[in-house]
Amino acid sequence: MNVEQKLVCNVSGFYPESITVNWFLNDTLLENAKTRRISSSAIESVYLFTPTEQNRGMELRCVVEHGTLISPHVERLRVQVTDMTPQYKLHTVFASVVLVLIIGVGTIIFLFVKQKKSFPKVKRITRSSATFSLAVNHFYPDNITVCWKVFQPPSSTEPHNIGSTTVMHPNQDGTFNATSTCESLRGLIREDEPYIVRAVVEHNKLKHPKQRDWRSDDKENEGIKGHFDKNQLQEQ
User: Fold this and answer.
1) Segment 175-208, tens digit of pLDDT
2) What's phi and psi for 179, nearest 5 deg?
3) All residues at 6 or more sequence positions from 52 whose CB lies less than 8 Å from its CB, including other chains
4) Is the pTM value of this prediction over 0.70?
5) What structural domains does the chain harbor?
6) Which is nearest to 127 in space by CA: 48, 184, 73, 172?
7) Distance CA 209, CA 44 (A)
8) Other beta carbons within 10 Å of 140
9) Angle value at C-alpha 193, between 188 and 196, nearest 5 degrees
């Protein structure tokens, strides 16, 4: 009783980003709660509550409204006021510090997992007929660049740039998938001689650009559409 306490309502794993979190004491809206966005799919709403004798038996509610919910999601907490004597207040302070440390460590772990989860996963180049494609999955943010080049002969140091198109799709966890398709190689190469098609991916989560190669002289590719270059770089 009469001790300010920090109440936290964490919401995560939602998409799209638009979301509303409100606090109520019984049916009274608490307007001094503060909401902090942790990421595109996670927020933290904090209400500083100082219970008094008049609050005994009341109900605190954290109410979450989101476009994917048929009805608001509600978390409830019954106010059970205890008159703390000085000898127990020190224990409360200690427990509060431990709780804050646990929440802090939990938040760091969550952000680390989220950071790892949003690292671009670059797949291998596939070929279907005369079209080459490259998929990059589960990255965030959505700013990404995929450049295509062709080398003929494979040892050439002066490649030709290839025009390409990138189509992007959002995932439910707030990350994105992209598929880049390069245009025809007609006029850029001679089909009867070996060549290499290379895709280079740039994203701010990558320390260095990541590349994938498709070799026309790879035996696994001869006469087979959609097979890959076994000498490609390993995915991180």
Assistant:
1) 899 999 987 788 888 888 999 999 999 998 888 9
2) -125, 120
3) 1, 2, 81
4) no
5) 5-117 (2.60.40.10), 121-221 (2.60.40.10)
6) 184
7) 34
8) 24
9) 65
